[in-house]
Amino acid sequence: MSRWTGADPCSSNWVGIICDGSRVADVDLSYNPDLTGLIPSSLGNFAGLLK
Questions:
Q1: Which residues contact 39 (CB under 8 A, 6 or more apart)?
Q2: In angstroms, rounded to a whole number, what is the distance separating the alpha carbons of residues 2 and 11?
Q3: DSSP string over 21-47
Q4: Measured between alpha carbons, how far is 37 from 7 in angstroms, rounded to an integer?
Q5: pLDDT tens sequence across 1-51
Q6: Residue 40: its pLDDT value, please?
Q7: In angstroms, what CA-CA distances link 31 with 15, 17, 34, 42?
Q8: pLDDT of residue 29
């Protein structure tokens, strides 16, 4: 996630993060096929996550 810089994914244009206003609505990790590991259950804490 080296391209994720800044503290706010909605104002910093993070790759693979789609926002609806100031809320994260979609997390798309498919752009990085070498990504490995487990997705933490805390990802479900994003109240506005649609996908």
A1: none
A2: 16
A3: TTEEEEE--TT-TT--SPPPGGGGG-T
A4: 23
A5: 566 777 888 887 788 888 888 888 888 888 888 888 888 888 778 777 877
A6: 84
A7: 8, 11, 9, 21
A8: 84
> Tokens representing 7?
């503290």
Q: How many CB atoms lie within 10 A of CB 16?
A: 16
Say what the pLDDT of residue 1 is. 57
Query: Which tokens go with 42?
Result: 């805390």
What is the pTM (predicted TM-score) of this model?
0.62
Is the Cα dihedral 35, 36, 37, 38 positive or negative? positive
Residue 23: half-sphere exposure toward Cβ, Cα within 13 Å = 9
Closest CA to 19 of 29, 10, 11: 10
Main-chain dihedrals φ then ψ at residue 2, nearest 5 degrees? -65, -20
